[in-house]
Amino acid sequence: MSNNNIKIFNNEKTNNLTYLTNLVLNVNKISEIKLSYFENLINVELNNNNISYINSTTFENLRSLEYIDLSINEISEIPPGTFQHLTSLTFLNLSSNFITNLRYGSFRGLTNIKILDLSMNKITSLDVTVFHECIGLEKLVIDYNMIKNINVDGLMDTARNLSSLSLGGNPIACEEIVRGVQLNEKRKIQITSINQHIYEDNVHGIKCGNTNYYSSSTEMTLIKSVDKNMFPAGVGNSTTTILLTWCAVTTILVLFAMFGYFYYIKRHMSIPMRRDYFRNNSLNISSIDNHTDLLS
Fold first, then answer.
1. In angstroms, how far is the first alpha carbon of the chain from the final one?
2. Is the pLDDT of residue 278 over 60?
3. Which of 24, 61, 142, 234 is the Cys-Cys partner for 45 at CB 3.0 to 4.6 Å?
C-alpha cells in the first residue's frame, strides 16, 4: 500500500487484520500508527511518512516482529522503553529523522538487534552505555550526525558482538578515527562509512574533521543510496523499486528524444545535399553535351 497518500491507517477494518505478517506503507502521509493490533507482524516498512512520535504503545504485543524501517520521518526522540516489547527485532532503521539525543533506556529490550541505523539525524553526543541491552548488535550506523567524539573502546565493551561501526560525515577528529581504525587489528571491528570520500579530509575514505551537516548535494542523495549490505537478505524495498522504474522510464524517454533529434537533423540537412547532387549532375550532363557537340 505504498504511494497512496494514506493519512490514517488504523480503523475498524484494518485493525481486524490480525493475520498480517508483512506491512508495507512506504511513501504515504501517515503521522501516527498503532501496530499492536497485528500480533503476527514480522516485517514493517513505514519509511517516507510524517510520523513524529513513537513510544511503547506503538509496538505493544509484537513479539514476532523482526524488521522495522522508520527512515525518512519526523521522529525527534525515542522515549525509554519504546522498543521494550520487541524481543525478536533484528533490524531497526531510524535514519533520516530529527533525533537529537539518545536516552538511557531508548533501546531497552533489543537483546536480539543485529543492525541499527541511526544515520542522518541530529545526534550531537553519543553515550555508548545506551546500547547496554543490545548484546546481539553487530552493525551500528551513525553517519552524518553531529557527533564530535565517540568512545569506540567503551562501545565494544558495551556491545561485545559489534563487528562494524559506520561513522563517516561526523565532525570527529581524524586522529580519533585513526585510533578507531587501529582497533581493527586488536579487537576485530571494522570502522567504515556509508559513503567514501577521497577529495576531503578522510581516513580510508571516512570523512572526518570539520564537516558541515549535509554539506553537499551528493551527501543529500545518501538518503536514497544507503549501502544495500545493511539490509537483511530477503526483505523487499519498495522505494528502491520505484526509483529503478523511474530511471528506466526516463532513460527510454531520453533515447526517444535523441532519436527524434538526429532524425530531424538528418532529414533537414539532406535537402542541401540533394541540391548539390542535382546541381553537380546537371553540370556534368551539360559538359558531356558540349563535348559531344565539339566532337561532332
1. 91
2. no
3. 24
